[in-house]
Amino acid sequence: MTTQHPSKQLPADEEPFRKLQPVEPFSLFSARDIELFQAGQHDRLYEKFGSHGLTYEGKHGTYFAVWAPNAAFVSVIGDFNGWNIYSHTLFPRWDKSGIWEGFIPGVKEQQLYKYFIRSNSGEELRKGDPFANSWELRPQTASITSKLEYKWKDAAWMKKRGEKNSLKSPISVYEVHLGSWRRPDPDDHERFYTYRDMAAMLVPYVKEMGFTHVEFMPVAEHPFDGSWGYQLTGFFAPTSRYGTPQEFAALVDAFHHAGIAVILDWVPSHFPYDDHGLYRFDGSHCYEYADMRKGFHPDWNSYVFNYGRNEVRSFLLSNALFWLDRFHIDGLRVDAVASMIHLDYSRKPGSWEPNVHGGAENLEAISFLKEMNARIYERFPDVQTIAEESTSFYGVSRPVFLGGLGFGMKWMMGWMNDTLDYFKKDPLYRKWYHNQITFSMMYAFSENFMLPLSHDEVVHGKSPMIYKMPGDDWQKFANLRLLYSYMFTHPGTKLLFMGDEFGDTKEWNFKSELGWQLLQHPTHSRLRDFVKALNQLYTSEKALFSQQFDPAGFEWIHLADQENSILVYARKGAEGEVILVALNMTPIPREEYPIGIPWGEPFREILNSDAPEWHGSGVVNMGLLHPVPGRFGRPFDIILRLPPLGAVVLRMEPAKPKKGRK
């Protein structure tokens, strides 16, 4: 692709006003653009950098602009000029911004190109366009001139999505890796369904399951399938594996028409060292920290953005806003925030450099995240940002003006770790770990938490969800239904990885597809039906979401029966709604189990994980359950049947006032 050939004659579409040079001096940048770019404040660089088709002096062509401050020479090479490195040389701007630009007549859409860069040291590099909207299908690495024109049909959704994304609304997320949800041939990892196919298959499935949101694992262009999309080279381009940018936009549009919000997994933490990518872009450490104590990720063998360089901050800020602006994305889940804000993340003593105050916080990354969130919520107040942050760092989901990072939500990693560790234990021994399953409520309202059971929990030998559960086959499914019941009634929003909803029996493999054949077995199909019922419960009962980030929305009711591993708590809505949840963590059913409650109103069972329709044993509570005088220090008792390894969910049914006579 980089072989030099004689320059080819460009086609003449129109008669220009004068004979144009191979590259004409032209710019889309204003003085204000340069000022904002160099101040780290520009959030629309995608309108300036990259390739942009336009007409100049009567001649159609393409304007190119690239940032390469350490370059001595930059040219555009591509299939339009036989990859000739000397025929189309860009002009350096006079303002010392490090931007090279120019208009090339005759370059049309869908043409391959790269930048040839000769650094000040003499090193020669051939780089893809950091702002390209389309790339060749890997393993090819050229950028493609393209437009992002798409006629959106989701105006009604965009007008009302603020309500769907509200922290006082139910948010249940289905996490998806587009390449491995389904495949045309499960044994052929080179074939994919397209964005168009996904619109036909995935959209109705997510809607049928009752999820309110879908989250795509990274879809920006990446060279290596095994990175799952987390090591990017094309930050402004939906991956060509599944189709065109317009087809990706149509997929988002289809979800919006189905009433489902789309969250994108966004990766501002690191990037790989592929020759055509950002690493040493102009022969210098352009995008990454030069000091490898800050600039290299030992966990992922990748490089860290220099959050202290204003031009890099503008790049990342523009990238976050790009997906929200051009693709109507409804939220960004920001990957690896802990690695961004901690200088000592996964680094041994002596292998990291403290900040100016002697601490381990990356002050530049913290400053960037605050600026990013403030800008996002300023321009798109009806979206959400969600942090994957695994430490106890203060205020991740608190407003910037209160000293927080400004995210809308934070993944509750502590809940996930404690919960999975507890459920892996034999029920016989769970009484010794009672505090482990209750501890999350000690900090549940310190942040706006999302409860994640993500892809990370079903790979690298961690086993699929169903095989984390102890016991025989029946007990495994009962335990998993119990875990999901606990998850969907615990304060916080929810995220479930694809395949977990039906109990896939193999670890997730990005080269294949989910084990859909398992749905022919009642155990798996009924587990999926149960998850659908949990989504229906969560999205319809205000007590489960209207105060999901407020301590007023939760109350422990029965916590002391550690011996029998029984938990009872209440979820309360802003308008007085009450949901009572009783969990029996052992396989021993409890008949006529009394629970002291403060309410005298009757309750009705609205969900039971042990019901026969979910493949349970049928220990359920029928009819209206009336409280009786209390015997254990509470005004009232309610007498329940607690199923083995089961969850009972009850709704308070206030007595209707009697109608008076006229």
Question: How would you concisely characterize the structure shown here?
Answer:
The protein has 14 helices and 29 strands. The protein is an alpha/beta fold and 662 residues long. A hairpin with a 7-residue loop joins strand 21 and strand 22.
Write structural notes for this entry.
Monomer. It is an enzyme of class 2 (transferase). Belongs to the glycosyl hydrolase 13 family. GlgB subfamily. It comes from Chitinophaga pollutisoli. Its EC number is 2.4.1.18. The structure is a single chain. The chain is α/β, with parallel strands linked by helices and 662 residues long. 23% of the residues lie in helices and 22% in strands. It is built from 14 helices and 29 strands. The strands form seven sheets. An eight-stranded parallel barrel has the order 9-10-13-16-17-18-19-20, surrounded by five helices. A six-stranded antiparallel beta sheet has the order 21-22-23-29-25-26. It has a four-stranded antiparallel beta sheet with strand order 1-2-5-4, with no helix packed on it. Strand 14 (296-297) and strand 15 form a beta hairpin. It is elongated and about 95 Å long.
Mean pLDDT across all amino acids: 94
Point out poorly predicted stretches. Answer: 1-10
Tell me roughly what share of residues is in helical segments: 10-25%
**Proportion of residues in extended strands:** 15-25%
- Count every beta strand, where a strand is a DSSP E run of 2 or more residues: 29
Overall spatial form: elongated
Distance between the termini: 89 Å
Q: What structural class should be given to the helix and strand makeup?
A: alpha/beta
Strands in their spatial order, largest beta sheet: 9-10-13-16-17-18-19-20
The main pleated sheet reads as: 8 strands, parallel, barrel
Return Rg in Å: 28 Å
In DSSP terms (H or I, runs of 4 or more residues), the helix count works out at 14
